[in-house]
Amino acid sequence: MEKNELLDKMAAGTMTRRDLNKALTAVGLAAVTVPFAPGRARAAGEINYFTWGGYDIAEIHQPYLDKYGGAPAYSLFGEEEEAMQKMRAGFTPDISHPCINSVPRWYDAGILQPIDISRIPSWPNIWDELQDMKGSVVNGKNYFVPFDWGNSSILYRTDLVDPEYLEEETWGILLDERYKGRMSVYDSVDAIAGITGALIGAADAFNMTDAELVEARKVLEKIHGNMRFWWTDQTAVEQALASGEMIAGYAWNSAVVTLKKEGIPIKYMNPKEGIGYWVCGLVRIANAPGSEDAAYDFIEAMLDPEAGRFLIDEYGYGHANTKSFDLVSAERLDALGISSPSALFAEGWLFDEIAPDIREKLITMFEEVKAGF
Question: What burial class does residue 263 get, using C-beta atoms within 10 Å of its C-beta: 0-12 exposed, 13-18 middle, 19+ buried?
Fold first, then answer.
């Protein structure tokens, strides 16, 4: 991304957290500290919030600003492994924002402290499916508060695909040779595990057996043969779908927001094999130097229904608080593909932690297929 384009997107507020992370990384700014306002005196009880780009904004924790007269200090990371290594090296924020599949690694690294959910008034309003998720509770203690969630699925042009895909949505579209060279998938081992696992009917896509990995490779080879490109920046998919160069691509909910605004005839799949979904949230860091009361006030502020309304409406992501959905129209939720969260959780597959040995096998498989071995 060119410098001027980056600045224009940041100023216009049209850059998603993932786009910003890629852009920051490209210019060597994967982790930076961003003050809320230059010269502002530190607010009483101020804490440091270590998060993804795009979440360092007042709209998603306004009650905290109202109470303390200022924002927390913000520090940004580009991806979760980088964040964990920085904290292991001595950086100690108060609150951070990993996804659930990273929480076990962070716990094992000794950088987390328990969270007292009795100090979070909005906890009862969190979707039942997001409470006590696998990896969030250890020895009876909670280490994770869900905040945002989203989907990974196929976004497709309704005017360009065969009507059969309008009648029965499926990840199998990626295997359709009629669309060879007109599709794209995220260049990610986790994405590939989820997609191939779903297509072969693996018992656990993120913990495949050696026999399942053999079948997954066969599927991956077919997918690779149909790709126009493997993407690392979602804007490439959005542009290709908008122009008609592509008919379908792996995407996150935020792409739905972007293309709907442009009036492009697209639809976000809920595949018969299940839709992928990720859940990210808040953790307290061990030996955090800031105010404990402020840390809990901040977590509660992030769960505020109005914060959720903003997240849903502007980013296209789901919010942990069920009451946030009452503030968004049914038409809007339907257009974003998140009108029935419980159904998505029940029918979908969660991006889960992949054991190191299985991840290495997946990486080798993916790289060999892309290289034509």
Answer: exposed
Name the helix (H) or strand (E) containing 51: strand 48-52
CA distance 179 to 174: 8
Q: Are 220 and 303 in contact (CB under 8 A)?
A: no
Contact 156, 173 (CB under 8 A): yes
Residues of the chain with pLDDT under 50: 1-44
Among the listed residues 49, 159, 246, the one whose alpha carbon sits nearest the alpha carbon of residue 237: 246
User: CA 257, CA 316: separation in Å to the nearest integer?
Assistant: 6
**Distance in Å from the first CA to the final CA of the chain:** 31
Relative to beta strand 95-96, strand 266-268 is unpaired
Q: What DSSP letter does each residue of 207-235 carry, written as one string? A: S--HHHHHHHHHHHHHHHHHEEEEESSHH
Question: According to the model, what pLDDT value does residue 278 have?
Answer: 93
Characterize 302-334 residue by residue with b for buried, 16 or more Cβ atoms within 10 angstroms of its Cβ, and e for exposed.
bbbbbbbbbbbbbbbbbbbbbbbbeebeeeebe
Phi then psi for 186, rounded to 5 degrees?
-60, 135
DSSP helix/strand/coil, 350 = strand
Bridge partners (DSSP) of residue 251 are 153
pLDDT at 117: 97
| pTM listed for this prediction | 0.78
Domains of the chain in start order, with CATH, are 31-143+277-340 (3.40.190.10), 150-275+351-371 (3.40.190.10)
Q: Concatenate the DSSP letters of all residues of 137-173 into one string.
A: EETTEE--EEEEEEEEEEEEETTTS-THHHHS--GGG
